[in-house]
């Protein structure tokens, strides 16, 4: 039974606490493209992304059950997080 390398857990990642009680898991190792993998759970939705930095900054995205897209942007200094929900047609629903 092979482990899925793309999933992050406490063994292969570091947890970063962000404003708004958001936690981002950052991979300890870079992926094949030379980026760090990011994963966060917001409102029970798993968001994934990549970053050049290993501090938790970057863009993470996921898709809700109703097909709307959720995008979490974390600033380089981790001081600002922006959570956007985009409807299926691409228009911003909540920002």
Commentary on this structure:
This protein is mostly beta strands. It has a single domain, classed as Lipocalin, CATH 2.40.128. The protein is 0% helix and 53% strand. It is built from no helices and eight strands. The chain has strands at residues 13-18, 22-30, 36-42, 45-51, 58-63, 69-74, 81-86, 92-94. An eight-stranded antiparallel beta sheet has the order 1-2-3-4-5-6-7-8, with no helix packed on it. β6 (69-74) and β7 (81-86) form a beta hairpin. The N and C termini lie far apart (41 Å). The relative contact order is 0.17.
Nutshell version of this structure?
This protein is 0% helix and 53% strand. The protein has 95 residues and is an all-beta fold.
Fraction in helix:
under 10%
Task: Using the 3D structure, state the CATH architecture.
Answer: Beta Barrel
What is the fold-level CATH name, i.e. the topology?
A: Lipocalin
Note the run of SSEs as H and E.
Answer: EEEEEEEE
Structural class computed from helices and strand pairing? mainly beta
CATH class annotation: Mainly Beta
Radius of gyration: 13 Å
The low-pLDDT segments are none
Number of structural domains: 1
Overall spatial form: globular
Q: Compute the average pLDDT.
A: 88
How many beta-strand runs? 8
Q: How far is it from the N-terminal to the C-terminal residue, by CA?
A: 41 Å
What is the CATH homologous superfamily assignment? C1 set domains (antibody constant domain-like)
């Amino acid at each position: 039974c092979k482990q899925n390398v793309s999933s992050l857990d406490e063994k292969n990642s570091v947890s970063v606490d962000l404003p708004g009680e958001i936690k981002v898991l950052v991979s300890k190792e870079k992926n094949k493209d030379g980026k760090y993998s990011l994963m966060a759970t917001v409102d029970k939705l798993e968001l994934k992304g990549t970053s050049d930095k290993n501090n938790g900054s970057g863009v993470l995205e996921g898709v809700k059950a109703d097909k709307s897209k959720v995008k979490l942007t974390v600033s380089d200094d981790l001081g600002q997080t922006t959570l956007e929900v985009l409807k299926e047609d691409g228009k911003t629903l909540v920002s």
